[in-house]
Amino acid sequence: MKFIIQRDQLMESVQNVMKAISSRTTIPILTGMKIEANENGIKLTGSDSDISIESFIPKEEDGIEYVEQIEPGSIVLQAKYFPDIVKKLPQKTVEIESEGLQVTIRSGSAEFHLNGQDAEEYPQLPQLHTEDSFEIPTDLLKNLIKQTVFAVSAVETRPILTGVNMKLEDNYLNFVATDSHRLAARKIPLEVDTTNMTFSSVVIPGKSLNELNKILEDTQENIEISVTENQILFRTRHLYFLSRLLDGNYPETSRLIPEQSKTVVHSPTKELLQSIDRASLLAKESRNNVVRLSAKENNQLEISSNSPEVGNVMEEINVNSIEGEELKISFSAKYMMDALKAVENDQVRIEFTGAMRPFIIRPIDNDQILQLILPVRTY
Amino acid sequence: MKTWSDMSQVQPLVAKMLMNSIAKDRISHAYLFHGTKGTGKYELSLLLAKTIFCQNRESTEPCHKCVDCHRIDSGNHPDVHQIIPEGQSIKKEQILHLQKEFRYTGMESNRKVYIIKDADKMTGNASNRLLKFLEEPSKLTTAILLTENSQSILQTIRSRCQIMSLKPLNPTNIKKRLEQEGLSSSNATLVAALTNEVTEGLEISKDEWFANARKLVVQLIEVLQEKPNEALLFIHNQWMQHFKDREQLQRGLDLLLIWFKDIIYKQVDHENAIIFISEMERLDKSSMLWSRKQVTNTLGEIMEAKRKLDQNVNPALVMEQLTLHIQR
Asked: What is the SS3 assignment for A304?
C-alpha cells in the first residue's frame, strides 16, 4: 500500500474516526485504526465494537486532488500514536507506505516507522444494500434524536429500554423512547415508498444516538439510513456511522397512549416551563422532585411544591384555556421540563385523563411530537 | 493448532460427544469443560468456537485458515468474547461487560460465543450475574466455561451447563515423551507429575530455579526429621528466600505433596508409583519416622496451605503454620 495525501484532509478524517476508538476494549485489534487504500481514495475505520465510524477521503473532489500515487492495500495502525504523528508532521503532504506489516510515514525530512497489524484481523463491517435505505435531512435527524433520546432508560433492568425504537409504518418514520415512567415519541412523514423495506422496527442504543448527534453537523444535506440484520448505518457524504442494535422486541407502546381526555389545557410553553422550573427548586430537596399542578377557574393553573424541611412554593399562571373537569395532579418536575423542552412550539396542549392516569403533551399545531408522563401518587 | 482428530486421540470421549452434537446441529447453549491443567480445555474451547464460525468447514472440521479461524486464534474475533481473571478473580465488572455485549446484536453475525477461563475464580457477585443470563440464553449464544475444579462453581451454574469432564492425561505418556527429549528418568517422572504438558515440562526441567527448589524440598524434609527445632529458621533463611512469590510457593508445596505421597506408596509397598526415585534412602527413613496416619494428616495440611495461599494469606505465615503442623 502506498499513497501521498494532504495532511489537513487526513487529520480531519483521523479525528472523526478517533471518536469511535476506545482504549478500553477487550478485542486487541480494536485499539488500532484501519487504513484502506483503493483507486477511489482512502478509507479510515475506527470501532469500539458498539459503534464504528468510517471516513472516506476521495482521490479528488471538486477538481482538487487530495490523494496521489495510490497503490491499493490495507493495514491497521496503533490509534494511540498515529493521530499525534499526523498532527505534528512538518509538511503539508504526507506519504504513507506499507511493506508487510511495517509502515513508513514520511513528510518532508521526518520519517516514522510504525509496526502495523494485519487488516484481515479487523472486524468486517456488514455490506449494506442501498435498496433498503431512505434519506432524511441531517438536521431533522438530529431533531428526532434530541426529542426522544433523553427518555431512554438509564438503568439496565430492562435492557431493551436503553434504546430508541425506530419504526417504519405507513410511510411514517417513528422514533419512540421510554423508561416506563415517561415516553417520548416523534414521527415524520417520509417521501420515499417504504413498503419494500425489509425491516420495520429496530432498537438503536441510546448511547450510539447521542454519539451520532455529536458527530453530525447541523446541515440541510441529506443523510442516508440503512439497516441490516445486526447493524444500522447512517451515511453522509464522507462519513459512515455504524451502530450495533439492541437484541430483543421493543414493547408495544401505542396502547399506552390514552385516546380520550377529561381535561385539556392549552398553555404557553415558556411560561409553564419556567414556572415548573421555579417550583422544582424546592422540590429537588425531597427525593423525587415532585411538583403539583391544579387547574382552577378563570383559566388559571396553580403550580406548587412542598418539601417540609425547606418550605413551600406556590405560583399561579394564566393559560389560554382549560376545558373539562377540575384536576389536581402531581408529577416529576424533571420529566415535565424535559418534555416541554422537546416540544418545539411556543404553545402546548396538555391532555389529562384524571389524577392517576398518564397525561400527554403535544405542540398545539401538529401531532408529530408526543410526550407522555406518568403522574406520581401523593397523599 | 489442534484439530478434532487430534482431540479425539487425547480426549476421545469428550471429542466424540462434541463432534456428534456439531454434526447434528445440536450445540448446547452452555458447556462446562472441566479437567486438570494441560488437558486441553482452552484448545478445545477455541476449536469449538472455530467450528461454529468457520466459513469453509468440512463436516465437523474447521479449516484453520479462513479469516474467522485466524481471528479466533489471535483473540481478535469480534463475536468471540474471552474472559480471563483480572488478578486473583473474575470481577463483577467483567461479567457486566459481557452482559452488555450480549444485549447488543452481533458485530458480524448474530452468533456469539463466550469463553470464561478459570470460571471457578468468579466472585460471588460475578457468578450470580452470569447465572442470570445462563438462565435466559438467546438462541444463538454459546457459553464455554473452563475450570480445573468444577466443585467450586455454584451448583446453580453447573446445573445449567452441559458438563464435559476431560480426563487427566496419562503421566507415563508424558514421562516417555520427556525421556525422548533427553531427560533423565528420575527427572522425567518428577516433571510429569507436576505438569501435563510436554513443552512446559521441558521448560521446568531446564530451569535452574526448579533444580534448587527440588534440593530445598529434600533439605526441608531432612531438617524436619533430624533437627525439628531448626525448621522455622530454615523456612525463614532459605525456603522463603527461594520461593518468592505465590506461584513459586505453590510449586514448592506441590513438590512437598509429592514427597508425602511417596511416603505412603513406600509404606504400602507400591514402589512403582514413587516419584522421587532418586531419593529412595531418604524416603526409607521418612517412612520409618512418620506413621501412615501422620502422613495422611500432613497431606491434608499441605492442601489446606495451598488453599490459603490462593486466598491471599501471608505466605510466610502459611509456611510457618504448615511446618508447625508437620512437627506435631
From this structure: strand
Best to test chain A binding among B97, B103, B110, B132 (most A CBs inside 10 Å) = B103
Q: How far is A186 from chain B (nearest CA, A)?
A: 24
Kindly tell me if the per-residue pLDDT of A149 is higher than 90.
yes
Nearest to A115 by CA among A139, A148, A151, A82: A82
* Residue B52 in domain: yes
Of residues B272 and A106, more confidence is placed in A106
Identify the closest residue of chain B to A161 by CA–CA distance: B103
Count the residues in chain A. 379
Cell 393553573 locates to A301
- Looking at residue B218, its amino acid is V
Distances (CA, A) of B160 to A223, B6, B49, B75, B155: 46, 29, 19, 26, 9
Are B77 and A245 within 8 A, CB to CB?
A: no
Instruction: Look at residues A39, A359, A379 and name the one whose alpha carbon lies nearest to residue A183.
Output: A359
Cβ neighbours of residue A287 closer than 8 Å, sequence gap 6 or more: none
**What residue of B is the nearest CA neighbor of A162?**
B103
Of B74, B97, B105, Cβ closest to residue A244: B105
Count of Cβ atoms closer than 10 Å to residue A62 Cβ: 5
How far does the CA of residue B141 sit from the closest CA of chain A (Å)?
Answer: 12
pLDDT of A194 higher than 70: no
pLDDT surpassing 80 at residue A229: no
Report chain A residues whose CB lies below 8 A from the CB of B141.
Answer: none
Name the residue range of residue B215's domain. Answer: 207-327
- How many residue pairs from chains A and B have C-beta atoms closer than 8 A? 66
The beta-carbon neighbor of B110 closest among A30, A160, A230 is: A230
**CATH number of the domain encompassing residue B105:** 3.40.50.300
Query: Do A133-254 and A257-373 have matching folds?
Result: no
Q: Calculate how close chain A gets to B85, using CA atoms only, in Å.
A: 13
Mutate to test the interface with A, among B70, B73, B76 (most CBs of A within 10 A): B76
| Chain-chain contact of B70 with A120 (C-beta, under 8 angstroms) | yes
What's the CA gap between A338 and A193, in Å, rounded? 33
CA triplet B36, B41, B44: central angle to 5 degrees? 155
- Is A131's pLDDT higher than 80? no
Tell me which CATH code domain A133-254 carries. 3.10.150.10
Question: Please, is A258 exposed, middle or buried when counting C-beta atoms within 10 Å of its C-beta (0-12, 13-18, 19+)?
Answer: middle
Q: Which fold has domain A2-121?
A: DNA Polymerase III; Chain A, domain 2 (3.10.150)
Q: How confident is the model at residue A196 (pLDDT cuts 50, 70, 90)?
A: low
Q: How far is CA A284 from CA A155, A288, A305, A310, A311, in A?
A: 21, 7, 10, 10, 12
Nearest to A121 among B71, B82, B105 (CB): B71
Residue B190 lies in a domain: no
Q: Closest-CA residue in chain A for B77?
A: A123
ipTM of the complex: 0.77
Instruction: Give the model confidence (pLDDT) of A254-289 as tens digits.
Output: 888 888 888 899 999 999 999 998 888 887 766 678
The shortest CB-CB distance from B105 to any of A156, A159, A247 is to A247
Do B151 and B22 fall within a single domain?
yes
Instruction: Give the end of a domain, one of B165, B193, B218.
Output: B165
Total structural domains within chain B: 2
B103, A121: Cβ pair inside 8 Å? no
